Amino acid sequence: MSNDILDLAAQVGRALQEKGLLLCTAESCTGGGVAQAITEIAGSTGWFDCGFVAYSNASKTELLDVPAALIAQLGTVSEEVAAAMASGALANSNAHVALSTTGIAGPSGAVPGKPVGTVCFGWSNGDSSHTERLVFAGDRQAVREQTVVHALKGLLRFIN
């Protein structure tokens, strides 16, 4: 794990701790990479509640209460599904704020309108939420690393 990601995770930890917030994650394409970065930081038990790795559509529905009809209508890689994942993580945890990632890390999986590198993000605190859709360049590892960085940076913006 890069020092940049660890520095960012430490910044997130300080910001959450200052605000007295607990974080949970709902990850698909990152496979728990955000939670791993966060738990690399000593003392993260003070601001990290749990992480869900919901890689399959069924797990998104079963663990995070994402409506199957939403996935069928818009696809797994959509801002709406990212928002539902974050909301579902909050509802199924003790956290105050959640972040989610869902995307196509590659090398395959592209569909019309959603090339490899497409990632949707969600951040929610129960009262408000924010989503984004980005397309990253690079191989699978590069897409996943860029996704972790953007998820953490987005969380900092969301809570500040």
Automatic annotation (TrEMBL):
<dbReference type="Pfam" id="PF02464">
    <property type="entry name" value="CinA"/>
</dbReference>
<protein>
    <submittedName>
        <fullName>CinA family protein</fullName>
    </submittedName>
</protein>
<dbReference type="InterPro" id="IPR008136">
    <property type="entry name" value="CinA_C"/>
</dbReference>
<feature type="domain" description="CinA C-terminal">
    <location>
        <begin position="7"/>
        <end position="158"/>
    </location>
</feature>
<dbReference type="InterPro" id="IPR036653">
    <property type="entry name" value="CinA-like_C"/>
</dbReference>
